[in-house]
Amino acid sequence: MFRHPIVLLSCVALFWGGNAIAGKLAVGHVSPMILTALRWLFAVIFISPFAIARVREQWPIIRKNLVMLFLFGAFGFAGFNALFYYALNYTTAINVTIEQSIMPLIVFFGNFLLFKLKPSALQLIGFSLTLLGVAITVSHGDLTSLLLLDLNRGDALMLLAALLYGGYTVALRYKPALHWQAMIFVLAVSALLSSLPLAYYEYQSGKMLLPDLQGLGVILYIAIFPSLLAQSLYIRGVEMVGGNRANLFINLVPVFGSILAVFILGEVLHIYHIVALVLVVGGILLAERSATTRSEAV
Fold first, then answer.
1. Quick one: CA dihedral 165, 167, 169, 174, positive or negative?
2. Which Pfam families match (predicted)?
């Protein structure tokens, strides 16, 4: 089932769409930085029995690339998640999932600057549609508010989180040749270590909230599905089809996330959300069609 890249990356989008719902359910039940730290603590515990042998086997490669791998975990895992969960305290799960769709634009721009990978005309149209959809969401249907820089705090934080993860995806091109289990273990440990100072700051500021039963359930879901399974499948997806095409499937996150938000959280799907979703899905279809055509022509 997970051998086909479309199925694999669609599952990633589904799990990440569920991450927004879980993050919203965590509000008032566990504080964002504690949630981030415990998420990666449980992820490390769950994957350790399977990954330790691989880590020992590939330790010379890991040690040689330890700084880079730590930065991957610190920014792509811990930093992104901390901003993501903090954003959900100030905006809706629907907004957060739609705003994630700006990531492919960041990835293509980064690949163009660093590796001179030029997008096709259809891809540019797809990016433009995606950007417009995100702009409509961030502005809550009123694009003039963007001219006044009148952004909700949660929406602004989510855009910053998207920038971090887009940069992480571009940087994956430099990742060493590691087995996926060893890779995820090292990144999860790095995310855990780098999230501890954030949790300590939250404690010092008096904003720490330890998880209750619902908070613990959210942490377990997040540790298994959006953390271990989705991150592992995403890395594999990047290996199979490249960062540009793999990142396009993040545009499916708002589709899954919006559906889940309506049915699980009871959030209201406004007209501007629907317009944004149509633009986002149209963008991914155009860009993916272009990528497929170009690969077949090679």
1. negative
2. EamA (PF00892)
Give the span between the Cα atoms of 101 and 124, in whole angstroms: 14
Per DSSP (E only), the strands in the chain are: none
Task: Please check whether residue 101 is in contact with residue 250, taking contact to mean a CB–CB distance below 8 angstroms.
Answer: yes
| Contact between residue 225 and residue 57 where contact means Cβ atoms under 8 Å apart | no
- Assign residue 178 a region: left if phi > 0, alpha if psi is -120 to 50, beta otherwise? beta
156 Cβ contact partners less than 8 Å away, ≥ 6 residues apart = none
Q: Enter the pTM of the model.
A: 0.79
**How far from chain centre, in Å, is Cα 211?**
23
The C-alpha atoms of residue 180 and residue 234 are separated, in whole angstroms, by 10
Q: Which residues contact 24 (CB under 8 A, 6 or more apart)?
A: 88, 92, 93, 261, 265
> Quick check: 62 and 55 in contact, CB under 8 A?
yes
B/e letters for 260-271, b = 16+ CB within 10 Å, e = fewer, are bbeeeeebeeee
In tens, the pLDDT along 234-245 reads 877 877 877 667
| Chain centroid, CA 174 distance in Å | 19
